[in-house]
Amino acid sequence: MNTISMEIVHVDRFTSGLVGPGLGMLGPLRPGGYIETRTPPGCWSPMITPEFHGGHEVTVPVAIAGAEVGDAVVLYLEHVRAASEASSSGVDSAIDGRYYGDPFVAKRCASCGAESPESYIEGIGSDAVRCKHCGAPASPFRFKLGYTCLLDRENGVGLTVTEEVAARLAGDARNLHASPTHTKAHSILSYGAGSMPGIVTRVMPFMGNIGTTPSCEMPDSHNAGDFGAFLIDAPHQYGMSRETLWQHKTDGHMDCAQVREGAVLICPVKVPGAGVYMGDMHAMQGNGEVAGHATDVTADVRVRVELIKGLKLDGPILLPIVEDLPPLARPVTPAMREQAKGLATRFGAETKLEDNAPITFIGSGVNLNEATQNGLERAVAVTGLAIDEVRNRATICGSIEIGRLPGVVKVGFLCPTAILDRIGLGTVVRRQYGL
Predict the structure, then answer these.
(1) Which domains does the chain have, with CATH numbers?
(2) What DSSP element (H or E) covers 412?
């Protein structure tokens, strides 16, 4: 890491499935500067690559000059575009004997016993991933039901294809997936999955894993309260206690479809320099990622980074673009305010109208109930509002939405701007929503 801060940091190296303070950082980047990168496909491609100790392949983290533990960094997602021409995904099934404890983290060859063996691709299908030591099939995952989707990025349209077409695409997997030069993961297009052909969908790309470095080393896909629960008392080298997980994680793995171009993400700093990283781009996904995985693609990304001193967070805060906000959580319009004044006059209930703006807290946990409680508690800790007031606001001027199954939620509501100003977010929020 340089000692002189930079205006732009270009990242073209990746961490092979891990995040943590021991991996080193690029930069430092000057606050107000930009991180530019091309991220590799996440989820399925790293999942089928035995060398990886996590389910993603995220960028080497970037240090932010002046960022200290207890601060927050603001990530402005100015450019988030899919680069792949095709993607493949589906519901997974782990293969017994090819892992111990966790197929995302601790892969092994069932034939020769090699742990996290190097591998290569030979042929098409779930047996195409082969152990370099003995040549046996080595991927710990197969599809229960998988599909391949063509992507028209210019017009925002996707189309699922037949097995015959998927098999043909598998022969040019890395090129069609636009895998970056230094990516080490095998392309999941090599599986040639072809279920559910003929479905037309929309291309709406977003970042599934983006944020700041946790304060202990862990698999990148497990940097959240739900996937991270698999680390609790796990038999492999990344096993940890629940207390350790909750202390160190930063919930970068959110899979919230609203983390897309134009959104703003405010993230906790839990290590000196923050260590901003990103990956796991999806071509599209509804709320919930109920299949466990979505259409992972290569992404061209440019993020502007600012620093807020003294804003202590445990997890991310999201400011989606207006059209992605739930209807009740959208900013109050001037017309609505005038109508509210008329309503007050009609009933003799004149009162000062509250000035407020949208804010969304990410919560995570082993299930949706625990994640919701976590999001509510984070909102209380940051805003100082009583938990019952946060619950009321999320009900009448906000919403609680699924980010990912089994346990990531978005707790959004209209928060008084006086509170946003006090905690240092007033300017960021006003700028995001044109207030």
Answers:
(1) 1-318 (2.60.120.580), 322-433 (no CATH)
(2) strand 408-416
